[in-house]
Design a protein that fits this description.
Blueprint: H1 4-20, H2 25-38, E1 57-59, E2 67-69, H3 95-109, H4 113-130
Antiparallel strand pairs: 1-2
Length: 131
């Protein structure tokens, strides 16, 4: 069941990724600091001493809509014991992979191709600008 707490936190998640999805890590730190000082009415993820920012958390859809660190969603990696996989086929789960998979699935569930196309174009632009 979606509660008011879920809606508040999903709003923050959308705000954070809408404003800062294309920022680099340094600018994400600045946005995190800005939100924590100037947007105290928002239900932000907890400030933790390990340097995690608002970008390091996701809303747990089930249950009470708790903020969860992306690390909590990392599936374990098991290297195959009976075979040697092709090097290019190995995908060790890291936070970035889990985060992108979650966000792409969230966009895909909307059934709006336009949103996905816009995100892909922004990603292409970001890659181009870094070259």
């Amino acid at each position: 069941m979606v509660t008011e707490r879920h809606v508040r936190r999903f709003y923050v998640l959308a705000l954070v990724w809408g404003l800062g999805g294309l920022l680099d890590s340094g600018d994400r730190l600045l946005l995190d600091a800005h939100l924590r000082v100037n947007a105290t009415a928002l239900d932000l993820p907890p400030a933790v001493p390990d340097g995690a920012t608002v970008f390091d958390f996701v809303v747990e859809a089930g249950g009470g809509g708790e903020w969860r660190h992306w690390n909590a969603l990392l599936p374990p990696y098991h290297y195959p014991e009976n075979s040697t996989p092709d090097y290019s086929a190995i995908l060790v789960p890291i936070v970035d992979n889990v985060r992108v998979d979650y966000l792409v699935n969230l966009i895909a569930k909307q059934g709006k191709v336009e949103i996905f196309q816009i995100c892909v174009q922004k990603l292409k632009l970001k890659i181009y600008l870094r070259l």
